[in-house]
Design a protein that fits this description.
The chain contains 6 helices and 6 strands. The chain folds into 2 domains: 103 residues, no CATH class; 73 residues, no CATH class. The chain has a 4-stranded antiparallel beta sheet with strand order 3-4-5-6. Strand 1, helix 3 and strand 2 form a beta-alpha-beta unit. Helix 2 packs across helix 4. The radius of gyration is 29 Å and the shape is elongated. It is of the alpha+beta class and 208 residues long.
């Protein structure tokens, strides 16, 4: 009788351990795992699953993925361990399939292309912050009002940003007006993009 109970407990522990192993370690009972990846590949549904919030450049990444014949599938942040682990196996199976299709080293190349998109997007956001910082300065606001008033809203001020020093991450923003014949610059602001601070609050450069 005791032997039967012992075997019964061992069986329960064995199957219990197997269940939890398959569920949490491999994510077998989640929508994304190595088995569902194989089924999706057979049906021609090629995708990589991403966990987290939608990135600002998701549309650009999706276009890059589409050029290689697959999609990014994005789902929320509130996920459990079994889904995270299952997704890792799902994506690994998908990447192996894509590497077989496009050749060894394709995944490294693709990630480099994704990094390039991230850097471009980051640079664009930084440039936007730099321009907004200059636009908030009172002397710039006053100049905008003055030009609009004198020209009866026919001419306008433009903020023209350029990367002045890539090593120190310094931007130059010109506050200029196109008067119809040439570009007149009123201020030249230097911005430290590391701290998002204006170096020359008066908008004058040393050589001016």
């Amino acid at each position: 009788m005791k032997r039967k109970i012992t075997y019964g407990l061992l069986t329960i522990l064995l199957f219990g351990g197997l269940y939890f192993g398959l569920r949490f370690a491999f994510g077998l009972f989640t929508p994304f795992n190595f088995w569902t990846a194989g089924q999706d590949i057979k049906s021609g549904k090629i995708q990589l699953a991403e966990i987290g919030e939608m990135p600002l450049n998701f549309e650009q990444k999706q276009k890059l993925a589409n050029s290689y014949g697959f999609d990014f599938y994005l789902f929320g942040c509130n996920v459990k361990t079994d889904i995270i682990n299952g997704t890792e196996y799902y994506n690994k199976t998908m990447v192996d399939h894509l590497e077989h299709k496009y050749g060894i080293g394709w995944w490294t190349k693709f990630q480099s292309q994704l990094d390039s998109i991230d850097k471009t997007n980051s640079a664009g956001l930084k440039m936007e912050k730099v321009v907004n910082l200059v636009a908030e300065q009172q002397i710039v606001k006053d100049q905008i009002k003055l030009i609009d008033s004198l020209s009866k809203s026919q001419r306008h001020i433009s903020l023209i940003p350029t990367l002045e020093d890539s090593t120190q991450n310094i931007y130059l923003v010109k506050v200029s007006e196109d008067n119809g014949m040439n570009l007149v610059t009123y201020y030249n602001f230097l911005i430290d993009a590391n701290s998002m601070t204006i170096i020359n609050a008066d908008g004058k450069l040393e050589r001016q």
